[in-house]
């Protein structure tokens, strides 16, 4: 099949569909990047690594809520629409950020503060689990063929922008506040900013239009109901696990292709700042600056890789990530553990992020292109969230567990093995670039090509 002719990119839809990811992932990553400052606020004094292990455990628990969010909000998006789900997810995130900002400390109420922190993380997990489904399906459906890879790549642009905003704020605070002030009250400031930002995004998302693909599917179901009375029964199946099980092969495919990619992504983003500080011995401020600069370049690479996938297909990029991730993880992480300054650490981290770009730039559109409209959001959300909970969410915890056990290099081999697992899937899966999502696209696809 020929490569689709590129159409104009609907920038308003791309902005509206992806901007919420900024505040969602700002809040999500702020927890990780400021954990070194608030770990002592919620747990008894002791070994620093043990305190970080406790906060990392709560961070991982948030991931295990993501499958629930993927199920509930994915179902909601398939039944009520992508726009409705987008506004709901950002509302939940605003509430969870505010809850963390006002959480009491261990010194004031004992472990109750950690309970509040846990509840907030559960809310964040619920929200992010639904956000990925809603934004992935919205960006894919709202964009014409030939531009979907490019448009959907802005999901990770906005996700990375959220992380950059969190890291940037951390760098500013590190240079304007003392270590004592950051540990005392300064760590609460980023969560207040996140709660306010989410309220602004809520207003912007209420002005979005629903996707034509979803409206077409809804109208078709209504018309079928009016003509033969069976439409109502089929409508009840939209966004259900029963309907998803009819596409179990695609669901298992999403889990498998996500495993290596999400683990590598969280290794080179969320965990690496701590790794550079705890293992390489770089100052916290230097480690944060390295992450900020590398992630800025990483964000700029996403649209380029997404546009490339619109030309050559999705599989070549995924396979490139799988190969490089399998053979390059161990030497990269080993070298990073001995990085002696900003530039060596920056170059090595950026190399890892360039490898991960083969996955991050297109993973959302690939998953959305695997499923039909009536179960697309749930099909994207639930299998992805399961894989994220098992691999991405536990990345930091597993890494610290290896470190505490004196076998830190074991984590490097674990990441490489998961990349190899996903590589097998990438080689065997079908190409999804030319998938038609609507009747208009199917009609255009069937039309004869004129010279």
Automatic annotation (TrEMBL):
Domain Major facilitator superfamily (MFS) profile, chain residue ranges per copy: 13-433
* GO MF term list: symporter activity
Cellular compartments per GO CC = plasma membrane
Segments traversing the membrane: 52-73, 109-133, 185-204, 251-268, 288-305, 317-336, 342-366, 378-399, 411-429
The listed locations are: Cell membrane
> Gene3D superfamilies, alphabetically?
MFS general substrate transporter like domains
Membrane topology note: Multi-pass membrane protein
- List the Pfam families: Sugar_tr (PF00083)
Xref: InterPro entries: H+-coupled_symporters (IPR051084), MFS_dom (IPR020846), MFS_sugar_transport-like (IPR005828), MFS_trans_sf (IPR036259), Sugar_transporter_CS (IPR005829)
Sorted alphabetically, the keyword list is: Cell membrane, Membrane, Symport, Transmembrane, Transmembrane helix, Transport
What PANTHER family has UniProt attached to this entry? Answer: ALPHA-KETOGLUTARATE PERMEASE, PROLINE_BETAINE TRANSPORTER
Report the protein's function. May be a proton symporter involved in the uptake of osmolytes such as proline and glycine betaine.
Give the family from UniProt: Belongs to the major facilitator superfamily. Metabolite:H+ Symporter (MHS) family (TC 2.A.1.6) family.
Q: What is the name attached to this protein's record?
A: Putative proline/betaine transporter
This chain's source organism reads Actinomadura logoneensis
Highest lineage ranks of the organism? Bacteria, Bacillati, Actinomycetota, Actinomycetes, Streptosporangiales
């Amino acid at each position: 099949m020929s490569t689709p002719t590129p159409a104009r990119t609907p920038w308003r839809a791309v902005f509206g569909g992806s901007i919420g990811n900024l505040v969602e992932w700002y809040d999500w990553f702020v927890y990780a990047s400021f954990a070194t400052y608030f770990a002592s606020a919620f747990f008894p004094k002791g070994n620093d690594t043990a305190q970080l292990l406790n906060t990392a455990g709560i961070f991982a628990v948030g991931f295990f809520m993501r499958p629930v969010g993927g199920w509930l909000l994915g179902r909601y998006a398939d039944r009520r629409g992508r726009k409705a789900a987008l506004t709901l997810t950002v509302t939940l995130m605003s509430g969870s950020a505010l809850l963390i900002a006002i959480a009491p400390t261990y010194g004031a109420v004992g472990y109750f503060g950690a309970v509040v922190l846990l509840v907030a993380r559960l809310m964040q997990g619920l929200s992010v689990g639904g956000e990925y489904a809603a934004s992935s399906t919205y960006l894919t459906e709202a964009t014409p063929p030939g531009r979907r890879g490019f448009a959907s790549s802005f999901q990770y642009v906005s996700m990375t922008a959220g992380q950059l905003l969190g890291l940037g704020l951390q760098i500013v605070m590190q240079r304007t506040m003392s270590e004592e002030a950051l540990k005392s009250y300064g760590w609460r400031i980023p969560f207040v900013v996140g709660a306010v930002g989410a309220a602004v995004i809520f207003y912007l998302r209420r002005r979005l239009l629903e996707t034509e693909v979803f409206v077409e599917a809804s109208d078709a179901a209504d018309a079928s109901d009016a003509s033969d009375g069976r439409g109502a029964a089929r409508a009840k199946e939209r966004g259900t696990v029963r309907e998803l099980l009819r596409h179990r092969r695609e669901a298992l495919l999403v889990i498998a292709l996500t495993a290596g990619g999400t683990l590598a992504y969280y290794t080179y983003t969320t965990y690496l700042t701590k790794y550079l500080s705890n293992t390489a011995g770089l100052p916290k401020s230097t480690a944060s600056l390295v992450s900020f600069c590398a992630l800025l370049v990483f964000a700029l690479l996403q649209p380029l890789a997404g546009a490339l996938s619109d030309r050559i297909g999705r599989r070549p990029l995924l396979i490139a990530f799988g190969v490089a991730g399998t053979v390059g993880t161990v030497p990269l992480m080993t070298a990073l553990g001995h990085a002696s300054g900003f530039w060596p650490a920056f170059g090595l981290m950026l190399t890892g992020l360039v490898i991960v770009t083969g996955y991050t730039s297109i993973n959302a559109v690939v998953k959305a292109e695997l499923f039909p409209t009536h179960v697309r959001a749930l099909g994207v959300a639930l299998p992805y969230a399961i894989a994220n909970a098992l691999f991405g969410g536990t990345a930091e915890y597993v890494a610290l567990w290896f470190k505490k056990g004196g076998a830190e290099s074991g984590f490097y081999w674990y990441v490489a093995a998961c990349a190899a697992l996903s590589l097998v899937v990438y080689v065997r899966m079908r190409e999804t670039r030319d998938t038609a999502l609507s009747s208009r696209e199917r009609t255009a696809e069937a039309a004869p090509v004129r010279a």
